[in-house]
Predict the structure of Bacterial bifunctional deaminase-reductase C-terminal domain-containing protein.
Amino acid sequence: MRRLFPVTDQTAAPDPDREWSLAELAAAYAYPDGDGGGPGVWLRANMVASLDGAAQHDGRSQPLSSAADMRIFGILRALADAVVVGAETVRAEGYRPARAREGLAGTRRAAGQGPVPAIAVVSAGLDLDFSLPLFTSPLVPTLILTGAGAPPERIAAAEKAGARVVLAGDGTGVDPARAVQALAGLGHTRLLTEGGPKLLGQFVAAGVLDELCLTVAPMLTAGDAQRIAGGPAMAVPRRFVLASLLEEEGFLFSRYRRDLP
Ligand SMILES: NC(=O)c1ccc[n+]([C@@H]2O[C@H](COP(=O)([O-])OP(=O)(O)OC[C@H]3O[C@@H](n4cnc5c(N)ncnc54)[C@H](OP(=O)(O)O)[C@@H]3O)[C@@H](O)[C@H]2O)c1
């Protein structure tokens, strides 16, 4: 991997395929102030897209990914307090509990974090299989973000399985800004969303997305796949600032963030 931007001595790396250590990757993707305290809650998204903008192939993101993309996926998780994900992605991708990374255990401890981030599933209907390890045996309890009008029997099933249900909306649905605040209220200020596009579009539209880590896969897919963010368009496109750009084997790992004051 090499860094294309900001330009450093790694830009013309003698060995662009050298695998960066966990520590190097963790430094490259550190939250703005390193411990989440500065700008308060910080919501970053991590998504992969093909050159023609597809966020999925055959209903999954894995065909667009690479080994380096998966390493960055793991690092972003390892830096986060909580991973926010839409229920459809949990169902489509067969989400499992987050795994502890031995090489980053000390970093998490020093940052006052538990062994793994909490997975926070956003769902209105709670039509989820609560017998799965994601709910029954995570290292830290899985959270379910839903609205006050969610089916009570599904809330009961989630809680019986060991999940913690957090209300962040007055109707059946979740208000994206309230979801961020609710997580911050639980002490989760370094937030990562892994999509999918329906959920990410709502964070974008609500103006609460601070950063996008976008992997551009050197692939064309055509077809009618979703883009990385869906839903109603914003009135005015929101401008982001390029924070860094890494490259490995033609995959571009970009990091865009909102302008910091
Ligand atoms: N390219 C990438 O990086 C990437 C990343 C993630 C996923 N994906 C792909 O994207 C697809 C899935 O994404 P998706 O956009 O279809 O769905 P999604 O955003 O993962 O999940 C949609 C579901 O989340 C819940 N939800 C969303 N907003 C909500 C709100 N405001 N209040 C309450 N619940 C809410 C609902 O769950 P209920 O139906 O349970 O009520 C809804 O059906 C898959 O093909 C996956 O592989 C790609």
User: Anything to note?
Assistant: Residues 47-49, 55-56, 59-61, 86-89, 92-93, 122-125, 127, 173-174, 194-199, 202, 226, 228, 230 surround NAP (CB under 6 Å).
